[in-house]
C-alpha cells in the first residue's frame, strides 16, 4: 500500500541522532536520506518531531539548516547521565584484569539481570580483512529497547563517546528505578577516558581524580 507523503499528519523520527553516526557516502548516508524524507513530507498540516535521549551538536546544526521554526524541548540537562544509576569507573590494568574483575563481581556483588557491553574494533577489522569469516554482533542493545528490571550494566569495553555511554547505562535505572553501571578501563583507553569520567562526575559520582585532568578529546 502506498501513500502520498503530503497527506501525513505526523513525521516522527526516534533515535534521531543515530542517523548521523554512520556515513556511507554523500548519496547514501542517513542524513541525506532523512533530508529527502523530510522534504517529501511537506504537507500544510504535517507536523515533524525528532526524539532522542541525546542530542549532539552535529544534529543541532543539521536541524538549523533543514528545519523551519524549530522549537527544542530538553528534559533534564543536555547529554547528561541518569543520576539514578550508581556509576563506577574502575581501572582494571589490562584485558585480563577486566576478565578477573568481572568474575569477582559476578561472584560477590552480582545483582541480576545484567547487561555486559563490549566493543571490539579489531574483530570487525579481522572480518573486513577476511581473517574472520563469521561475525556475530549487535548494537541493538544500546538503544531503543525498554528492558525492564535490568539492575546492572557492565561496560567491559569503554564507550568511545559520551552519547554511547549515556545510552548504554540507560538500559538500567529506567522509569525512576535505581540501577548500577560499572565501566572498566585500561591505559589503552586514555583517549576517551576524560569525557566519560566527566559525565560520571557531573552525575554526582566519584571517579579517579586524574581522569578529569587528562587531555580532552578534540572534536
UniProtKB/TrEMBL annotation:
PROSITE patterns recorded: HELICASE_CTER
GO cellular component: cytosol
E.C. number(s) listed in UniProt: 3.6.4.13
Record field: transmembrane: none
Start and end residues of each Helicase C-terminal domain: 77-215
Keywords in alphabetical order: ATP-binding, Helicase, Hydrolase, Nucleotide-binding, RNA-binding
GO molecular function annotations of the record: ATP binding; hydrolase activity; RNA binding; RNA helicase activity
Catalytic activity: ATP + H2O = ADP + phosphate + H(+)
Enzyme class, spelled out: hydrolase
Protein name as it appears in the record: RNA helicase
